[in-house]
Design goal:
Low-confidence stretches of chain A: 575-580
Distance between the termini of chain B: 79 Å
CATH architecture of the largest domain in chain B: 3-Layer(aba) Sandwich
Number of helices of chain A: 19
Distance between the termini of chain A: 67 Å
Radius of gyration of chain A: 36 Å
CATH class of the largest domain in chain A: Mainly Alpha
Number of strands of chain B: 12
Mean pLDDT of chain A: 87
Oligomer: heterodimer
Helix content of chain A: 55-70%
CATH class of the largest domain in chain B: Alpha Beta
Largest interface: A-B, 175 and 177 residues
Structural class of chain B: alpha/beta
Strand content of chain A: 5-15%
Bound molecules: adenosine-5'-diphosphate, magnesium ion
CATH architecture of the largest domain in chain A: Up-down Bundle
Structural class of chain A: alpha/beta
Shape of chain A: elongated
Strand order of the largest sheet of chain A: 6-7-8-3-9-10
Chain lengths: ~575, ~600
């Protein structure tokens, strides 16, 4: 997938890549002319020289350099620019793919892990496509050109003998390279462990502060930083050894050239100008040889990143839309047919043999202890989780047979945690709709009983709620989340998953009045709560216990049953016994 | 005009101040740096000698009649020896400076983290965590490059330039002075590019951090995006940030290439210039050919450090930007300081007094007004009130997340502003509705990684709060590994853990801020039973919507729009026709019962 992306990108930009190859190639051919010109220049002194000739040599060097620099700059920029375009496109693909994956995937990966794909892997691939390709082109062309020049213009045996130590350079690079890479990955991992711990600690900053736990946190952080230090130093030791070996080999090669080249000059087998030119060429060979090694490292490094990105892009949601989706019926009940559900990585079912009918336009209350399976039930209805085939139907159509976009258009939802984006209150409420219509926002805010609060804020609906809605109180956040669900006024099914727990009784009561209005308009309501007062609208109540339906009936029936519900009723009405 | 001059001056002093702040961290290593400079000098000398050796070879042994090979071999051997010495010097210099640099960064990281943790809550509301994490993680890494790359480059390359220049002047001072002409050209090019590059870099960085912040938030809220199937809308918003960042990247690269190629060109033009000037000198017999060779080599050598310096200029730019951001955080004073002479009693009884307390987050909008409440040690207090009434705010003041705007809060007659915050937080514990988990075992999550809290204490806390029940049922019990997004714990279970982690600290004053809202009635009863037990010898304040939770309080205070409007026991309050009675009626099951 990832490799295919790169191949396609090359193909789509073939013209520009060819242009870059040609310009870089030409530039290197020009570059290697300079030592030759200098060599000829020096030889000319022995043959007799005039000031005019000196000027001509100097001008020749200048012109060749201008050509070389311009061509090289153009080629280098082209390759680098293309790589950055690819990088931007790859980021977009990643984001798009994440949107395509289901919540199960996000439970398996932390946000930090996912972000590191964007922060580390994508740039690593970019680096291979920019620096990697640039250096390869440079190295190949420069090495070949230099070799051709020394062999044809100077002396074959001198070239070969002096080259022997230099040829060890790529070997050293390839030998030490992987070690360095492994160590640098360790360093990278320790760095991201530190980032992860920082994230964790800052997200719990209230807890840290209120427990006076700052010293403990600093201690844990210091331990992380110490591992970074140790591993970084190990990396430095490897790196410096590597970097010392290269000049050593170059030095040996240069010494050979000095002695052997000198001997050849004494024997008049080469001219003094050639001797000088050769020493310059030799220094020009060092860089491409190092680059060969570098390039191998860059490519290996990015291949690991490419692999990770490929894995990510290949991850497929386990929940998919049917090929020929049915429309979601406008009318008809929601029916659970003997539904048993186990989480993909769970061992035991969290819902067992649920058989239940929610008539159109009725209100179902779901109560039960924490962990009874209430949220799971709503997630099934939103098809965030996949019910077994044939176990969950709306108006007689299996919800597995409808497109999720359609399903989620007809169902609206208020989550338990009331997640908000760090945009304005108005934008948060209008989140589910295409266009922000102030009148609609106003209506939804009114229905969720948040309008008065928003109007007291200096900036009204433009008030920015801060990260995770931090500047709002829990109840305010929850009511914005309710308004966000209510703005989808056309949705036939409304699910509130424990959404009223953070609001006080009075607010709850007002919101329930708004829900009553929805109920009167014929909407089907499913309200999950462990607080019975939230369920006063319910036509029917189901009591879940350990994933099974423990009781079902109208509130009056359940009260007479003397079961869990009646007990709960007794407990919760204690607060109001004198009153009632 | 005067204004812009002033602003420029301020900007300049800003960045030189940043460098100074970085160097303060390096101060303890100043001896090491002197060692490094010595090694660098050795290394550079060996580099400068090499062309000189070739010059000797050419002028003395190759361009003479009846030359022999032996001296050439000697020169070759000397050359190798010098290379080896240079190499060792280089090896050590790099290691020493890297070690110093890493230690400096280690210290900066620790200081930065501890400093951030010490900042007041108001800071965390105005700074998003994503950016702070970038400060700790990537900015400090970039700063480390200042020490390991830039500083080394400045020392090494700066010395190289000086030595090469010196060698040229010694060989032939006239030609040497001519070569020095390139220096003003280099300075001019740098001056033209510098401000521009700086602007371009900071544009790229700020666009990057906005994009990363966006991605992080959307990954967190991906469920909401999907449930409301707003994938297209968010992808549009993403593109809106991604494209500008991509363009900034391309633009940055364009200028990088332009800048580096300019120096490349300048280097080659200098060779041409040297060929002309030196050639003329040879022509006029003022120098020998070997000297010309040496000059051409030297002028090339001269550009190597220049190139390396410009490469590292980028490093400097990015580490400066990072350093500015880090020092901005470090310069933020914690708003709430411990007093110079703290009055911290060794122990407290748990008497709390809110004395005419007023508070506003934003001066224009007072949240709490004239709160007067005195709580006797060991009392069980309930606080009721509508959402937004200011209940949580009141608790934030007690925990001193913020300082009161007027009035005072006292614990055992001591103003909490006169206490060490460390002590205050030992006595006051707050359980909130949102529960943050750490990657670590359940036991670690309860003891908050404090080594002094034993497993027995952890289990005891679990037992008191009733968390023990579900923990035991987990396959690995207290050793079960949790992650911050621990999806396999239900909200109620997480809440029980939060409760246990507070109890284990044995606070004198325990505050539950709607902590039981997520618990089902049965779990709540379990918690409440535990609560009654732990409340015995401490002051307990419970904020709850469900009035049944606070029904048995010694006293209930009702907050409305930031004022205490009623107080009394449950029985006293319901007889009145006040706010509490109304709330009770609204939330009661009476309406429910009507249906039945
Ligand atoms: N993503 C998940 N993977 C595995 N188990 C889960 C997941 N989410 C919830 N559970 C388990 O499913 C059970 C029911 O959870 P849930 O539906 O959230 O309960 P409720 O909403 O009634 O509190 C619990 O035992 C919980 O631990
Ligand atoms: N960090 C904050 N910055 C600005 N305003 C805040 C902040 N936290 C809360 N508020 C405002 O203060 C008021 C009281 O909030 P809060 O104390 O959380 O209420 P309660 O806990 O009673 O529901 C609300 O109007 C809320 O918008
Ligand atoms: Mg739930
Ligand atoms: Mg609150």
């Amino acid at each position: 997938m990832g490799q295919k992306l790169i191949r396609h990108f090359f193909r789509d930009h073939l013209g520009q890549y060819l242009m870059a190859i040609v310009t870089i190639g030409l530039s290197k051919v020009l570059q290697v002319q300079i030592p030759r010109i200098i060599g000829n220049f020096i030889d000319q002194f022995r043959a007799g020289i005039t000031p005019l000739m000196i000027e001509r040599f100097a001008a020749e060097i200048a012109l060749v350099s201008i050509g070389y620099v311009a061509l090289f700059g153009v080629g280098q920029f082209t390759v680098g620019k293309l790589a950055r375009l690819f990088e931007g496109d790859l980021r977009r693909r990643l984001f798009g793919h994440w949107e395509y994956l289901e919540s199960h995937y996000f439970e398996q990966h932390t946000v930090g892990d996912l972000l590191s794909h964007v922060l580390n892997d994508v740039p690593a691939i970019r680096q291979a496509l920019a620096g990697g390709i640039n250096q390869t082109l440079q190295a190949v062309f420069l090495f070949t050109a230099t070799l051709v020049m020394t062999i044809t213009d100077i002396n074959v045996s001198l070239t070969l003998v002096s080259l022997i130590p230099l040829l060890l350079i790529p070997a050293v690079v390839v030998k030490l390279g992987p070690k360095i890479r492994r160590q640098s990955r360790v360093v990278q991992e320790t760095l991201s462990a530190m980032a992860g711990m920082t994230e964790e600690s800052l997200q719990s900053i209230r807890l840290v502060k209120s427990t006076g736990n700052e010293p403990v946190e600093s201690q844990r952080f210091t331990a992380k930083v110490d591992t970074i230090y140790e591993n970084s130093m190990r990396l430095v030791r490897l790196n410096t050894t590597f970097q010392a070996l290269i000049p050593l080999l170059t030095g040996i090669s240069f010494a050979i050239a000095l002695v052997y080249g000198g001997a050849l000059t004494l024997d008049h087998r080469i001219t003094i100008g050639s001797f000088v030119a050769f020493t310059v060429y030799l220094s020009m060979l060092v860089r491409p040889l190092m680059q060969f090694g570098n390039v191998i490292n860059i490519f290996q490094n990015s291949s690991a990143s490419l692999l990770r990105i490929e894995t990510l892009l290949q991850a497929e949601p386990q929940i998919t839309d049917p090929e020929n989706p049915h429309a979601v019926p406008v009318h008809g009940p929601i029916v659970f047919h003997d539904l048993t559900f186990t989480y993909p990585e769970g061992s035991e079912p969290v819902l067992r043999h649920i058989s239940l009918t929610v008539p159109e336009g009725s209100t179902l209350g779901i109560v039960g202890r924490t962990g009874a399976g209430k949220s799971t039930l709503s997630r099934l209805l939103l098809r965030e989780l996949d019910p077994p085939p044939g176990t969950l139907t709306i108006g007689g159509v299996d919800i597995r047979d409808v497109a999720r976009a359609d399903l989620r258009e007809s169902v609206t939802y208020v989550p338990q945690d009331g997640f908000l984006f760090s945009s304005s209150i108005g934008q948060n409420i209008a989140f589910p709709v295409e266009r922000e219509d102030p009148a609609q926002i106003l209506q939804a805010a009114h229905d969720a009983n948040i309008l008065a609060t928003v109007q007291t804020m200096p900036e009204g609906f433009d008030t920015v709620v801060g990260e995770h809605g931090l500047t709002l109180s829990g109840g305010q956040r929850q009511r914005v989340a309710i308004a966000r669900a209510l703005i989808k006024s056309h949705s036939r099914i409304v699910i509130l998953d424990d959404s009223l727990s953070a609001v006080d009784g009075k607010t709850e009561s007002t919101i329930l009045d708004a829900l009553q209005a929805l109920h009167d308009k014929g909407r089907t309501l499913i309200i999950t709560s462990h607080r019975l007062s939230s369920l006063r609208l319910a036509d029917h109540i189901v009591v879940l216990d350990g994933g099974e339906i423990a009781e079902y009936g109208t509130p009056a029936q359940l009260l007479r049953n003397n079961g869990f519900y009646a007990r709960l009723y007794a407990i919760q009405s204690q607060g109001s016994e004198n009153h009632g | 005009m005067a204004d812009s001059v002033q602003r420029n001056a301020a900007a300049k002093s800003g960045s030189s101040q940043t460098i100074r702040e970085l160097l303060v961290y390096a101060l303890p290593y100043s001896r090491l740096f002197i060692g490094v400079i010595a090694l660098v000098i050795v290394y550079n000398l060996t580099q400068v000698i090499q062309p000189y050796l070739v010059k000797i070879a050419i002028d003395r042994y190759l361009l003479v009649r009846n030359a022999v090979l032996a001296p050439l071999v000697e020169i070759g051997v000397v050359y190798l020896g010098i290379t080896l010495i240079g190499l060792l010097a280089n090896l050590f210099q790099t290691r020493v400076i890297a070690s110093a640099g890493q230690q400096v960064v280690r210290q900066i990281r620790i200081d930065l983290f501890s400093h951030i943790e010490s900042l007041s809550m108001a800071f965390f509301e105005s700074h998003d965590t994503g950016r702070l994490i970038t400060n700790v993680a990537s900015d400090t890494t970039r700063i480390s490059q200042f020490f390991t790359q830039f500083l080394l480059s400045v020392i090494r390359d700066g010395l190289t330039i000086v030595l090469v220049m010196g060698a040229m002047l010694i060989l032939n001072w006239k030609l040497g002075l001519l070569s020095a002409l390139v220096i003003p050209v280099i300075v001019a090019i740098s001056l033209v590019f510098r401000p521009h590059l700086h602007k371009i870099y900071s544009t790229t960085r700020s666009r990057q951090s906005r994009l990363i912040g966006f991605i992080a938030e959307n990954l967190t809220g991906m469920r909401i995006i999907q449930v409301f199937h707003q994938e297209k809308k968010q992808l549009g918003a993403f593109n809106h940030l991604n494209l500008p960042y991509q363009n900034a990247n391309v633009n940055e690269f364009r200028w990088d290439v332009f800048f580096n190629r300019s120096f490349d060109l300048l280097g080659n033009m200098s060779v041409a210039f040297m060929a002309w000037a030196g050639g003329m000198a040879v022509f006029h017999h003022s120098i020998k050919i070997g000297v010309l060779y040496a000059f051409i080599s030297y002028i090339q050598q001269f550009f190597e450090p220049i190139n390396s310096l410009t490469q590292n200029w980028n490093t400097l730019q990015s580490s400066m930007i990072s350093a500015e951001r880090v020092s901005a955080v470090l310069a933020t004073p914690p708003l709430l300081l411990d007093p110079p002479a703290p009055l911290s009693p060794d122990s407290v009884t748990g008497r709390i007094e809110f004395d005419h307390v007023g508070f506003a987050y934003d001066p224009a909008r007072p949240i709490l007004r004239d709160i007067n409440v005195t709580i006797a040690p060991g009392q069980f207090i309930g606080i009721a009130g509508e959402t937004g009434a200011g209940k949580s705010t009141l608790i934030s003041l007690l925990a001193r997340f913020y300082d009161v705007t007027s009035g005072a809060i006292r614990i055992d007659h001591v103003d909490i502003r006169d206490m060490r915050q460390e002590d205050l937080h030992r006595w006051v514990a707050v359980v909130q509705q949102e529960v943050n988990l750490y990657s670590g075992s359940i036991a670690d999550n309860i003891r908050l990684f404090r080594s002094e809290i034993s497993d027995t204490q952890v289990k005891e806390a679990g037992r008191i709060t009733g968390a023990d029940d579900f923990i035991r049922r987990l396959p690995q019990g207290y050793q079960t590994w949790l992650t911050p997004h621990g999806a396999n714990l239900s909200a109620g279970q997480r809440q029980l853990l939060a409760f246990a982690r507070t109890i284990v600290l044995d606070p004198k004053i325990l505050v539950l801020d709607e902590a039981t809202a997520n618990l089902d009635a049965v779990s709540e009863i379990a918690v409440q039973r535990g609560l009654m037990e732990v409340a015995k010898n401490r002051t307990t304040i419970v904020i709850a919507h469900r009035l049944s939770t606070i029904r048995f309080s010694d006293c209930i205070y009702v907050l409305d729009k930031g004022r205490v409007v009623e107080s009394g026991t449950h029985e006293q309050l319901i007889t009145g026709r006040g706010y509490y009675a109304e709330m009770l009626q609204k939330s009661s099951l009476a309406q429910h019962a009507e249906i039945t």
